[in-house]
Amino acid sequence: MTENTKDTPESETGWRCAVCGFLFSGERPPRSCPRCGSPGAEFLPAGDHTVFRYDGEPFDVLLINGSSHRVGNTGFMLDCAAEELNARGVSFRRYNLSEYSIEHCWCCYSVKAEYCTYPCRNWQDDMPGFHALLATAKAVIVASPINWNNMPGRLKDFLDRTTCMQNLFHLDKPGLTEGKVVGILVCGHEDGALKTALDIFLYFQQMGYILAPFGIGYRTHGAEFNSSTDSGFFRNDQRVREDIKGVVSNVVEFMQLDIESQLKGRLAPVSE
Q: Which CATH architecture has domain 61-263?
């Protein structure tokens, strides 16, 4: 194993851990990351990053995995969500934030409100592509782990970067998100699930999203267990699947009422 793939033989391939960035040379990824311990499934082919942009194809629901781990418990929750959307014939797109380059918000608003514009002034990373996805999707389902009773920093950076969409209302410009639907899924080892969900929702509420009825689903394992047993618990617990199916179903039912079109131009934007 090596962290230098510049001289990788033709028979080998460069792999990058999506969690910590460790580079590995070999025909296939390692069984686990030598640096952060993540399973080999977290590795992606290494190579030059292509800036992400939305291709313009319409779809209904945007699925966001806010975890640093693509294939962990949070990813499993989105697997279940995707299964339910497929079963209902609802179009969707799924993204793992760990696979994309999303920089910290520049906080242009703190300098001058007019500087926080849409499109975002930072057009060099992948977030402008996600801005377009948010403007297009009728509904969003966000899945998040619990990090210290809150969402992980990766997801917070993503949500911080939606400020340019929220600021449209302060600049008296047409909004792009009011009346859309949001659902939230949270999992973790112990405490903080509901707080995490509500912290996430506050961002969307400030953009005019409506939380689907019974639109929050969460499950924790417990501090008395070793975290290495969480994966087996979540994948074998029937309540997890039922709750996710319920949240997804509620989001879809609410979305199909087309509240967004009914409220267009009728809402008074009240946000920070």
A: 3-Layer(aba) Sandwich (3.40)
